[in-house]
Amino acid sequence: MSSKKKLVVLSGAGISAESGLKTFRDADGLWEGHDVTKVATPAAWRQNPELVLEFYNQRRKQLKEVKPNQAHLIIAELEQYFDVNTITQNVDDLHERAGSKNVLHLHGELFKVRPEADLNRVLEWKNDLNLGDVSEEGVQLRPHVVWFGEDVPNMTPAIDIVSEADIVIVIGTSLQVYPAAGLMNYAKTNTHIYLIDPKPGLSESENLHIFSDIASVGMQKLKSILLQEK
To answer: Which of 48, 50, 168, 225 is the most buried (most CB within 10 A)?
Structure first.
């Protein structure tokens, strides 16, 4: 059994933005001109599946053009010193490409698809997905992404992981935004939480330590602190 401290990373769009991936929702509620309700809800899929598929095809293309940044790489490096689990709201694979081994995706994965009505038949899919691309049973495939209004199946395992953490790093997502904020309620009372956010909007407390930095800068600073604690 590992004697390493359990470190849990909660990551969101801010960490991938440094790699050049646009955050899903910018200030005007649009993503590259798309209203998210037209491309990321079950109703959108029913009404205009071609638009939804094209939206995710473009995101898949963009993901192939970017690389993990320093923040992703440092998180992967910390696995040498800690028992690390990364829980991400991101649908990209940048944590995995950086070398992280234990990654739980709350909102699905861009390079995976599944039949419309089956959560468990997940397939790897790196290229465009089109109408007419079907499972062995002839069922249309859809992006393996949790849309607005859908349940988050991985929330239960995420709660279990956070409840055992000795240290939590929140990066690229706010402690004021669900689901990161909700997950924090399951951390032990003595768990040290490190928030890396250029505009944190929170004050430090005994167990909450804040780095008002972008993801890569904050992780550089935090790495040296954590390696003294291990």
So the answer is: 168
